[in-house]
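Many introductory courses stop at the sequence. We go one step further.
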Amino acid sequence: MSGKQYHNMKKWRGFFLSQHIEQLEKVEDEWEEVMSQELVYQVLNSVIQNRSTLAIQQHSSDLSPGPYIIGRIAAVEGDLLHVQTNENIQVIELESIRYVEERKFQKWFEA
């Protein structure tokens, strides 16, 4: 492979990654449909059983949604959920959860 072809491939990958990041940021700026408490509990139960990662969107008084809280459940204490994120542990009241989804681990070769 010539140097020029390799250089163009790097540019293509960089372009692809920047578009992918923009798409992810755009998705995170949208409000998700409000889930019933029963459905929230079902998803949380599945996350606990499968030891999966989850993404939570909380109710907010702001006009725009805050960022998702993404992590793993570290503990449940009464009506409080302790979520281990990359930065710290966040404590979330179960009633404040607007939307939650289970994020399955996807192997790189299945993408």
